[in-house]
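Researcher: Sit down with what I've pasted below and flag anything odd:
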Amino acid sequence: MYILLALIAACALGVAMHFALPHRELRGVAVTPAVATAAAAAIYTGMQWAGVAEADVRLWVASLGGALLLALVATLALTAQRRRTDAEAKRALGI
């Protein structure tokens, strides 16, 4: 049941991260929160299977911190890729 708290927190922090990062017009509004939520679910579940208790701070720090770190890396990579492909398309079209 506590996993829902981690997923809701990761999603909310992912929304905040989307709006805090530059070039948000180049990506969908749901990309960063979706990556953060999926990463939090995977990390939380993996640590639970490894035997880390729900009351352990390491579980929460790892699941939320790791989710935000992965979402940051994925968002920055996606934005950079989009900028490159848009520049190539403009160059190919002569714009």
User: Anything to note?
Assistant: Helices lie at 2-20, 31-49, 57-93. The mean pLDDT is 95. The CA atoms of residues 39 and 62 lie 10 Å apart. The radius of gyration is 16 Å.
